[in-house]
Amino acid sequence: MKQDLTWGWAFGCVAALAIQAALMVLVAPWFAGWVHRLAGRLVGEPRFPAGGRWQEIWHQFRRPSLYGRQDGLNGVFCALALVLAVLACGLVPVFTLTMPGFPAPGMLLVCTILVAVGVLLDLPQAVQEASAAQQGCAAIVADALLLPVLTPVLLLTGAHDLVAFLGRLHVLSPITEGAPYVLAGVALFLATALARRDEQTASATLSGPDRAMWLLAADCMQMCWVTLAADVAWAGSLAMPGESGAENWLTQCVEGLGLWMFKLLVASLMLAVLRMALLPAGRRARVRLGAIFLLGVLAWQVTSSHVAAPPAEPENHNVEDENTQGYSTEPAPEGEPS
Predict the structure, then answer these.
(1) How far is residue 77's CA from residue 193's CA, in Å, rounded to a whole number?
(2) Where are the transmembrane segments (predicted)?
């Protein structure tokens, strides 16, 4: 039986959102370092341990920043990107949903914030000179086109917010009724898996705290895309508050946290394999946008046809009619056998 939103449940939802945001920010550099190391193992190259990403970020925070003529606004771009990335970490569910009636964002808002983070991360390269500026502008165009390409996926949510949408998917099996939403999750996953962003080139002009904020924002953005895709593909791993008591909800949160770690492990393997694809920047952007749009259209079409199709009426066989078929239902006259 569902419970109403009370002050206790509201406080629990706020605490859960804060824990989820902090957890994603802390795990994001580890996840990025693990994917980088795993991709190196697949191609036979030595890479730094997974924890080396956090060490690099912390080292850059302690270094002074060096600015050139075109680097005056780089600190503003990186700071805004980090703020929006941390905000997105608080909006994407990790191991639990919030109570019905608790304020929740829509899928469009979350995707818009993530696209804005990607554009802000491309701006430091776009303000440079010569070929670096061309590459940065091309990256901005590729990231800006991501939101229109995600339109079929956004249509799946309808007028529902993200929590209500995932709550509706919570009871669906990813193998049967929820299979179209698995395609939508793969489309969201490709948004970061095929991202056209060379860290060494995009952040080459950054140093000190600006570079640290750039790296942390990029890791948080990747973590948000991966987690959002995993939530859409399999929403049954998320805890549902209000369905039972607080103790059962906490138990579901622990289980959801373990399942989130499992989904990150699977996503890291997929990211490492896709990073091995050697494609030019322009072709990679076209493949990324085309694959996301086609998967979104396919998921939307299958879901729409499934909803529009009228349910099949079961055949109602009347056993009594079958047994009495060919026999008269009128009472037999007296003296005659029925």
Answers:
(1) 23
(2) 6-32, 72-96, 102-124, 136-158, 178-195, 216-237, 257-277
